[in-house]
């Protein structure tokens, strides 16, 4: 059989896979994306992206397209466990202090459009069925419309979702907690009077019944609504069983007393609150990103964000290694930086599951009241806002005395360039390279040998500054040096050694 060869094989064209492929295509690293489905998944699924994901899209010039496709991006604020105190994302100095109500299929459209513009492509109806790795690469087989495809890459990234085939082929353990709640979600046409009003800071109202039904209805485009639901029937349904109008009707009758009915189910699927995480995100030349690496209930709207941000973290590192700039050890930072982030989200979603549950006994009602009071304190509100928005992330640093900016996301500052042009920091990151923002009086010379990998820009900060004379920012928007000694070492650590001409 003919074996095609590429740099990176990406399995799965969901949010994580498309982000990764786009990041690789942006810097010219060859990659092939396989997806088992015949076309893009048009079901809305996730309803929002959080502020840090919005910032990351802005770093690549993708946010305007995303906002253009969003439902109404200033409609709602953030929340923790549905408690009645809005989270104030503005406390985190972001240009996007709201979740962007962007259905998942629309985010995937934004990413795939960019991938296509960059010359990349998704091979549809290509289902990965086998995989083997050796010291130099990974070989996969996939069923394809014209027969079987065999493909070899230097690395493989499994972005193939919660039921990952790659995870199963490798035999990796997926430890965690089994599902206790089974739910369904459907994009549908409803008849009757739909109460679309958001409950203040939360995008949709939750309706429940004493028999254990719940229904959450959110407006989509084109007259459709997204229903997330459960009930006695849904709790017993098999994962692959189709969602039927009868099942949905029963839920609506129990939660809305006959005021609503279903006219047509366009798309539907089932999910649960199972909570699991891989111990190792890297198995030799195979990496895991997104739901293939971690699953949890959608409470709090974090899953897609985690996957997209995993891919932003891994993409530039894989590219640096494949171009021969950096060594393999750079890839190990993917585990140390991203594993703890998902571990915390898993813990918080489990906590939210308990807090949001229907019970009021055993002190749960009082716990909710205590947490509600706490969220009214600015400090506590800011903490939780940072967690839910993904804005508080600080990457681990070996230096305890490090500058306070180190490891944090670089704010999207207004800058005045030496030639008088006014720009935003995010205008400097479109190409996917690192950025050395040089704010001092004397230009920094040390970065010149890295000019093929790092954009060196001299500028002034328009308003409140960074408090540093210069900052070095990684392609994923995190500060890895903020003035003082050690610039050469930091450039070498993250961007690889200087190339010697020979
Ligand atoms: C009702 C609901 C609401 C949600 N709300 C939110 C929210 O508001 N915010 C949020 O951040 N997250 C939310 N989530 C979670 C979010 O949908 C997931 O975390 C997200 O889809 C994960 O993206 P992914 O790219 O990792 O995987 P997926 O989107 O699952 O993509 C995996 C891809 O891999 C392909 N694939 C699988 N197996 C193979 C194979 N063998 N060969 C080739 N291709 C394969 C699949 O076809 C698929 O396209 C919600 C989820 C649900 C169900």
TrEMBL record:
The EC category is oxidoreductase
Give EC number(s), comma-separated.
Answer: 1.14.13.50
Its needed co-factors are: FAD
Q: Organism's domain of life?
A: Bacteria
Instruction: Note the Pfam families from the entry.
Output: FAD_binding_3 (PF01494), Rng_hyd_C (PF21274)
Entry keyword set:
FAD, Flavoprotein, Monooxygenase, Oxidoreductase
For this chain, one GO molecular function annotation is: FAD binding
PANTHER family for this protein: BINDING MONOOXYGENASE, PUTATIVE (JCVI)-RELATED, TRK SYSTEM POTASSIUM UPTAKE PROTEIN
Q: What is this protein called?
A: Pentachlorophenol 4-monooxygenase
Q: Which organism is this entry from?
A: Streptomyces lavendulae subsp. lavendulae
